[in-house]
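Hi V.,

Quick status before I head out on leave. The structure for the redesign project is tokenized and pasted below; the design run finished overnight.
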């Protein structure tokens, strides 16, 4: 059905069209059930707020943002990874009443495309890991920063991955009670995902790489086939999506690839994926977006 835009101003119509055309939802077909539920219209504050994350040359170009309680004071703070002529990430602490502190900058070796927040060393404080993507597709490391308390981070520990790491995610991949890391290597031959298993104290074994389809960009981790093991969902540039099923014992060799759309624009990129239960049937569905989806 064609949406009725006649009652909306031109700029709102364009945004509505963008929302309709730039997101594709895959309902989980491993255990799909029909459903129906009433429509609910969310109500949001009409105001928007902007906060500086830094100035050229040390803090421009935010690339990804995450929120978490970094100083254990009961509210959510913000971390922002930075790319182009900057690198690393900035921390903005929540001051209450929707006010945030001035950014505190932490450097990394190269420009970063993505960031994740998780308790990596099991000390009750949220740590940070990010990809060192580089400006010229030349990055080959990730950096891990441990929270020293109060949302203050120590120096980076670097780990080697494949060529041009972009997406990064954290989850307990081996069901041993600690958070492991997965990284999408966009320019690795054939496209790969690097898996880092956590030793329990925040130190990680050397990366184990698995094929993930060409040019993997962003990733998410979720249980897709309901076997109690966390799987990896990959957004690939060029209108493709891959699922790496967790076979246990750090084995992600069982890969399923799906075409998102048959028509692929030559400049299509920046693929992103998320997984959540969209239809309340007890399993995780997948959302995919890209620059030309």
């Amino acid at each position: 059905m064609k949406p009725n835009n006649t009652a909306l101003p031109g700029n709102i119509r364009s945004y509505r069209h963008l929302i309709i055309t730039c997101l594709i939802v895959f309902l989980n077909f491993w255990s799909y059930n029909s459903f129906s539920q009433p429509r609910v219209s969310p109500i949001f504050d009409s105001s928007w707020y902007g906060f500086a994350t830094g100035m050229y040359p040390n803090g421009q170009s935010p690339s990804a943002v995450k929120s978490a309680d970094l100083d254990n004071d009961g509210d959510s703070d913000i971390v922002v990874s930075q790319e182009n002529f900057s690198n690393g990430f900035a921390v903005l602490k929540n001051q209450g009443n929707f006010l945030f502190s001035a950014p505190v900058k932490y450097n990394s070796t190269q420009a970063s495309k993505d960031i994740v927040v998780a308790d990596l060393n099991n000390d009750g404080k949220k740590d940070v890991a990010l990809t060192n993507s580089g400006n010229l597709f030349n990055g080959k490391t990730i950096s891990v920063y441990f929270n020293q308390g109060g949302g203050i981070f120590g120096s980076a520990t670097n780990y080697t991955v494949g060529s041009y790491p972009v997406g990064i995610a954290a989850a307990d991949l081996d069901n041993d009670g600690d958070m492991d890391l997965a990284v999408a290597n966009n320019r690795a031959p054939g496209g790969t995902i690097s898996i880092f298993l956590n030793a329990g104290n925040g130190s990680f074994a050397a990366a184990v790489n698995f094929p993930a389809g060409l040019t993997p960009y962003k990733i998410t981790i979720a249980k897709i086939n309901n076997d109690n093991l966390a799987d990896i969902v990959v957004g690939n540039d060029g209108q493709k999506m891959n699922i790496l099923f967790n076979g246990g014992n750090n084995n992600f060799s069982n890969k399923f690839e799906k075409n998102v759309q048959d028509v692929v624009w030559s400049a299509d990129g920046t693929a992103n994926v998320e997984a959540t239960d969209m239809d309340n049937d007890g399993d995780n569905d997948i959302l995919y977006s890209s620059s030309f989806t």
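Above is the designed sequence. Helices lie at 10-21.

G. will cover questions while I'm gone.

Best,
W.
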